[in-house]
Amino acid sequence: MIHVLRVSFFLFYIxxxxxxxxxxxxxxxxxxxxxxxxIAFLWLKEAFGSLLGCVFIITEVLFL
Length: 64
Prior knowledge:
Elements: H1 2-16, H2 22-42, H3 51-63
Helix pairs in contact: 1-2, 2-3
């Protein structure tokens, strides 16, 4: 199910590229894995497969 969310977010992102600046584009693309994981966890009741994987995603977003 998480793949459906990732594809949906990506299609939304591609469709909106002409309306936002390059800085906003970079921020949105870096937050995509985090948003996808949280939506899957909260809305779809998916379990986080690995705590280490979650830490990597959050760290990636914070460093950008």
